[in-house]
Structures are given as structure tokens and as C-alpha cells.
């Protein structure tokens, strides 16, 4: 039968290794200095070799100790994380929801009142991380994805809706017989030039069999929010994602011209770690998102 190392000894070893002092480790673990010293001595006896070098009142890992630490410290962290996860109440009312900034400004904030009416006891905290990332490491419970499902294969990932691109402009720029083609000949195009948006005009024009408009000075914006505001201010016409301007169109700040174009490679998704689906708060949020994207 394999000889098992007491978990208390591993806790103590990691604490001493990370603090460089048995006295500091005793403070971290809230035990006596002698208890720390005895635990380290017992561990070294079990392993049959020393793990530390004593330098005055301080200690540091020797070569064997460094190798041992590299193996056990990550394992101990996993044990702590797993224990904390089980201790979290399944009915916790706080959810961290991640979405890109444009979606937060143009889609989430206008719907916050509706969500609060549906789930008045939930406290949703919004973060704005961009691109694929580790949900657990970033402290995110749910990600509202505007992108590719393939980038989130390690998670539960559910499609909420297609990503439709639309041409929009200020209502004052159109008349009853205005077409997308006539707008392109009359007004300059507004561009969102970040990597996620740089091909939007190309996709839309290809579907409509129209030439891609030239870029004009002062009408390229890194952030979509600024480009939308430029369109509202009658500076030109803009191709963007319907979900970003849905409420601006409803309020009469913008008008949609021509047929929408389904984005060829990205959609909207709900993503979370599978075990998060045990949380009532996450299920409530998912149900509400489904209705909003229906």
C-alpha cells in the first residue's frame, strides 16, 4: 500500500516555501512555530531527504524542494479551488457576465430594467474582456459571446442567435425611394477599424454585389460605439451588427436601409462552465437571454 503524505504537511510545506520563513508560515496557517517546524521535519523524514536550506532565521528550497514544490503547489491549488467551489451556495444571487463593450453599451444597458423586472434578486456584474479567455481564471460565470463557437469548445456553449449586419444612417438622410446603392453614392462610409469589425463592409457589400466604399479621413473609429454615434450625427452611413443598433433604430435615431446580411462566420452564444448550470442564478440569466434573442 502506498504511503500517503498528510495533507497538513503539504499545506505547511507550501506555506514555508512561499513565505521563506517558518515564523511567517505559522502566521499564515494560524498555528505555532513549533507545529510548522514539526510538520516540515515529519515531511522530510517521510520523503527521506531534506527540502530546505536553513539560512539564519529564513529558509529556502533546495534543489529537491524546488522539484517537489513544482509538483505539489499546483495540485494543492486545485484542491483549494475545488473545495471553495463546493462551498459556494447553489442559490448565490451574484453573476459575473462578460460581453464586449459595444454589446454592453448598445444592448445590455438598454435592457437592464427589463432584466431587473424578470430577476429582481439577481446581481449581475458586467466585465468586458475581449476574445477567448479562461472563464474560471478571470472570475467570469457566464460569457455572452459574439464570435465563433469553436473558440469555446471547453465550455457549455449554446447558440442564442445569428449575427445580422445592417446598413444604418440618420433618418434625415433617406427618403421614400432611397436605396443602399444611392446612399453609397451620396454619403461617405463610416468604418469600425478594429480587428473584429474591419471586414463588416466587405461581407455586406459582397452579399449585395456592391463595391466596397473608400475610406474617408476622420471617419474610421477603433470602437464601434463611436462609429454608431457618428452615424447618428449624420456624418455618413455605417454597416454594423443589428443587435448593436436595435434600440437606436427603435428610438428613431437610426434607420435601416437594404436587406440585412447574416455574418458568415460568427453568431451570438451563451457560454459557461458546465457545473455553473447547477446554479439557479445562471439558469435564470440563460432563460432571459434566450427570450431576448428569440
Automatic annotation (TrEMBL):
Residues 5-62 form the HTH lysR-type domain. It comes from the Bacteria. The keyword NADP does not apply. Keywords: DNA-binding, Transcription, Transcription regulation. SUPFAM superfamilies: Periplasmic binding protein-like II (SSF53850), Winged helix' DNA-binding domain (SSF46785). It holds the Pfam family LysR_substrate. Coiled coil: none annotated. Belongs to the LysR transcriptional regulatory family. This is LysR substrate-binding domain-containing protein. The lineage of its organism: Bacteria, Pseudomonadati, Pseudomonadota, Gammaproteobacteria, Vibrionales.
Amino acid at each position: 500500500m502506498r504511503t500517503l503524505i498528510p495533507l497538513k504537511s503539504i499545506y505547511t510545506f507550501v506555506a514555508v516555501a512561499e513565505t521563506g520563513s517558518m515564523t511567517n508560515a505559522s502566521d499564515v496557517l494560524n498555528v505555532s512555530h513549533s507545529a510548522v517546524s514539526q510538520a516540515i521535519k515529519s515531511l522530510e523524514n517521510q520523503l527521506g531527504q531534506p527540502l530546505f536550506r536553513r539560512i539564519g532565521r529564513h529558509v529556502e528550497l533546495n534543489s529537491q524542494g524546488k522539484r517537489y514544490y513544482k509538483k505539489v503547489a499546483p495540485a494543492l491549488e486545485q484542491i483549494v479551488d475545488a473545495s471553495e467551489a463546493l462551498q459556494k451556495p447553489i442559490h448565490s444571487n451574484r453573476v459575473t457576465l462578460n460581453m464586449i463593450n459595444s454589446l454592453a453599451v448598445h444592448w445590455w444597458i438598454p435592457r437592464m430594467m427589463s432584466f431587473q423586472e424578470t430577476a429582481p434578486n439577481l446581481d449581475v456584474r458586467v466585465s468586458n474582456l475581449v476574445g477567448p479567455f479562461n472563464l474560471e481564471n478571470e472570475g467570469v460565470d457566464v460569457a455572452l459571446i459574439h464570435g465563433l463557437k469553436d473558440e469555446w469548445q471547453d465550455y457549455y456553449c449554446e447558440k442564442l442567435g445569428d449575427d445580422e449586419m445592417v446598413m444604418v444612417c440618420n433618418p434625415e438622410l433617406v427618403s421614400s425611394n432611397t436605396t443602399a446603392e444611392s446612399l453609397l453614392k451620396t454619403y461617405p462610409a463610416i468604418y469600425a477599424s478594429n480587428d473584429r469589425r474591419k471586414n463588416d463592409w466587405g461581407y455586406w457589400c459582397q452579399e449585395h454585389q456592391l463595391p466596397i466604399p473608400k475610406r474617408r479621413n476622420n471617419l474610421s473609429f477603433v470602437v464601434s460605439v463611436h462609429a454608431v454615434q457618428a452615424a447618428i450625427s449624420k456624418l455618413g452611413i455605417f454597416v454594423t451588427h443589428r443587435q448593436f443598433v436595435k434600440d437606436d433604430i427603435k428610438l428613431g435615431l437610426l434607420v435601416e436601409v437594404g436587406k440585412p446580411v447574416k455574418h458568415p462566420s460568427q453568431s451570438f452564444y451563451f457560454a459557461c462552465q458546465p457545473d455553473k448550470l447547477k446554479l439557479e442564478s445562471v439558469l435564470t440569466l440563460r432563460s432571459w437571454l434566450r427570450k431576448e434573442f428569440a
